[in-house]
Amino acid sequence: MAQGVRTMSEIVLFKNIQKNGPELFPAGAAAIPACGYDDYVKNGGYQGARKALKMAPLEVQQVVKDSGLRGRGGAGFPTGMKWSFVPMDFKGQKYLICNCDEMEPGTFKDRALVYGDPHQLIESMIIAAYAMQMTQGFIFIRCEYRKGARILEQAAAEALNHGWLGKNIQSSGFDFHLDVHLSAGRYICGEETALLNSLEGKRANPRSKPPFPQVYGFLGSPTIVNNVETLCNLPHILARGAQWHKSLGLNGNAGTKIMGASGRVKNPGLWELPLGTPMREVLNEHAGGPSRGKSFKTVIPGGLSTPMMTPDQFDTPLDFDSVAKAGSRLGTACLIAFDEDDCMVAATANIMKFYMRESCGFCTPCREGIPWIYETVKAIAEGKGEEGDLAVLDDMARHIFHTFCAFAPGAQGPLLSAITTFRHEFEFLIQKSQCHTAGGAS
Amino acid sequence: MISDALKVQLTGHCGHYPSRRVGLIFVMQKLQEHYGGWLPEEAIREAAEISGVPETEVEGVATFYNWFFREPAGRHIIVVCDSISCYLCGCDRIAANLERKLGIKLGETTPDGMFTLLPVVCLGNCDKAPSIMVDDELYGPVTADMIDEIIEKTASETHGTRRAHDERNRPV
């Protein structure tokens, strides 16, 4: 197996934050000082933006299109294509928003980028803003990352001092103002239309699409919402070219991807790896295999909302298309591993509790359906399940997705895969009133 | 009541945007800070006046978001992550330990107004599960032994300057 392991020599996004050894943040994320302006520039920082500002905006868009970059927030939509929907002839203010509302359970990659290398994000936003001629940007950051918000504000002040923000950036004639917006906290804010409502000072209820934000977004103006990691690729693409970026991935995938592992693995952590790295390699080589000497039972591949994958699928390359073909989604590529002693019914109850608590309450199937699902799964997990409970779950799982946004379908993913793949565990618990595993989860 | 200076500052912040409403969340965050960690009726009225958003809608915003409190909260907020990775690594034990140590349940505030204990969505610290956050400080992986130390350290660092507010806002 060792032969197939890729080294991390092609570190792109983690260039300024890579530590010796596999672990990024040894003890407490705040313990690592953020890369300051001088160090960032010394390592080649702001070269991508310098290059972009000398090009025509549409040329920059073309480079991003050619690079094959796809959204790293989970959906995997081609970034260049998303940008191309922004009407360039729009006369009023257009907005660029960085989505740093990282709250998908099991996902911790954007924290590393923001806390470790804030200037990389700021440079990225300058490039994106210039490409679409957006003169106002926001970084929407979750409340629990308030230290990160301060790091970004400080970096933005440095960037302003060095002429990288504000009016007439580097004498290019282009203005870009950047505000850091600290959210008041709610999972649904990460959904891009909910994020827009939240930024407008409203409850974060998602909007119905269309119209899409690229045309009618923040305050009704054309708006682009991009994830932190997506944006952070831009300086490197601009500095080193679209073809170089394309060559980083495996099997025709473009770029690197920050991959993570948590749960029942020996060495949980984050690694920047070629897009298309097999799941087995991440689990066994980088994350060190199972933590308790047991074998893996299942993996949720990309944040809580992606369907579970089983060991027979561990050779799946971690890229958007391959994981979709295997019946799940790459999502954020932060793997959550379970081993054979974990009770999947109890785990599903925990997962449903999360969705129940964080539903914004706007659409009925989500607001009313998920609590019902949670209560049913919890009852089964506690040995109080009844004949017919699985039929209720089957029925609910088929209907909760009739909603405005992707939140309820997000809950549907793990639920459906749990009651399909681990149906025997549900049945065993309903019949015997005890878990078929020895101990159950922790 | 807030000072004229703060009111001018917050009004100016709202004026910075094409729609005053955009400044609402920031205004409410600052008011919450001013009132010692929660939003009394007075703060809702002031936020409405400053942002131009109707009071009922300000109330709607206040009750929607996790980090706005409409009743007095403790001087220190302890949040315990109970999402999947922390669940797998034993967050239930950590929560139970905290409950025992503080003598309160999740969602409650200690009678002396020192600590509020809440569950929270994934803190994005999954490689160091189980994780908790105390005010701005993140801890993980947390063990049962660390809890006493964390609580004592936090209690000893309480700022005297906030005491007046805290006294006034102590839950009855």
Protein model, in words:
The complex is a heterodimer of chains A (about 450) and B (about 170). Chain A has 18 helices and 8 strands. Chain A has helices at about 35-40, 45-55, 55-65, 80-85, 110-115, 120-130, 145-160, 190-200, 230, 235-240, 240-245, 280-285, 320-325, 345-360, 365-380, 390-400, 405-420, 425-430; strands at about 95-100, 135-140, 175-180, 225, 255-265, 270-275, 295-300, 335-340. In chain A, helix 2 (about 45-55) packs parallel to helix 6. The relative contact order of chain A is 0.12. The model of chain A is unreliable at about 1-5 and about 20-30 (pLDDT under 50). Chain B has about 170 residues and is α+β, with helices and mostly antiparallel strands. Chain B contains 8 helices and 4 strands. Chain B has a 4-stranded mixed β-sheet with strand order 2-1-3-4, with helices on one face. The longest helix of chain B has 13 residues, at about 145-155. The two termini of chain B are about 20 Å apart. Chains A and B meet through strand 5, strand 8 and helix 14 of A and helix 2, helix 4, helix 5 and strand 4 of B.
Give a short summary of the structure.
Chain A is of the alpha/beta class and 442 residues long. Chain A is 40% helix and 11% strand. In chain A, helix 2 (47-53) runs parallel beside helix 6, helix 3 packs across helix 6 (118-132) and helix 16 packs antiparallel against helix 17 (407-421).
